[in-house]
Design brief:
By secondary structure, the protein is mainly α. It has seven helices and no strands.
Length: 242
């Protein structure tokens, strides 16, 4: 559990890096969109080859179908609730969070980050090392997520202390979630583990489709497709090393 928590925090620490970059470096909206596109491609590869494929190997078609559907629906419901309470623009870089509720933004950040960290913890259940590709994917995607959000929160009038505290809290929760993903499922059946892996994949994919990729396209334009594929290719190559 300690190892899972450590790797979960490694992935979550990228949130602090991204937030710091967004607060203290003059990064244009277009560059932020390009970084988000790259991170999205990385995550798509990881959820396809390191989560969904592994879920199929563990639990078969039923586990994958149930998990993907459950994860997507869970994220959709959570995102709708968060959006209605003022957290719908939590990842935007243009300051749209000004009208949003602080608590909704916090809950939304957790909604986006927890499935990824649980996925990290689950990769340790086979008795081998941590899934390097999954950790790398979470790390590389978390930087643009928090970078964009921190830039927007700053424009919306949030203080530097508030923003960094938000991401520090989310990073801590990712460590706890990764440890829980390992500890609670240590004696679980392969079928249940497969469902959890697919659930995480479904939630992450729904998050990408509804938040990161639309923001990346709006800020970057047609080039977003090429950049996303580049991220996908890098993560796929990482997954072949495991």
């Amino acid at each position: 559990m300690i190892e899972a928590g450590f790797w979960g925090f490694v992935g979550g620490f990228a949130l602090l890096i991204g937030a710091a970059l967004g607060l203290w470096l003059p990064i244009s909206t277009r560059v932020i969109g390009m970084i988000m596109a790259f991170g999205s491609g990385v995550l798509v590869s990881a959820l396809a080859f390191d989560l969904t494929d592994e879920a199929f190997r563990r639990g078969g078609t039923a586990s994958v179908a149930l998990g993907l559907a459950g994860g997507a629906v869970a994220f959709f419901v959570g995102d709708v609730i968060v959006s209605r309470r003022g957290g719908g623009d939590r990842k935007r870089s243009g300051g749209q969070q000004e009208e949003g509720s602080g608590s909704a933004i916090v809950v939304g950040a957790l909604l986006d980050g927890v499935p990824e960290s649980v996925a990290i913890g689950v990769t340790l259940l086979d008795g081998g090392g941590v899934g390097v590709a999954v950790v790398a994917a979470v790390f590389l995607s978390n930087v643009p997520e928090s970078l964009s959000a921190a830039t927007g929160l700053r424009k919306a009038g949030r203080s530097t202390g508030w923003i960094m505290t938000l991401w520090l809290g989310v990073a801590a929760l990712t460590a706890v979630s990764a440890a829980a993903g390992y500890g609670l499922l240590g004696d679980a059946s392969p079928t249940l583990i497969g469902v959890i892996q697919a659930f995480a994949a479904g939630a992450i994919l729904a998050m990408l489709a509804s938040t990161m990729l639309p923001e990346a396209f709006e800020d970057t334009g047609p080039e977003v497709g090429l950049i996303t594929v580049a991220g996908f290719a890098l993560a796929f190559l990482l997954s072949t090393t495991g």
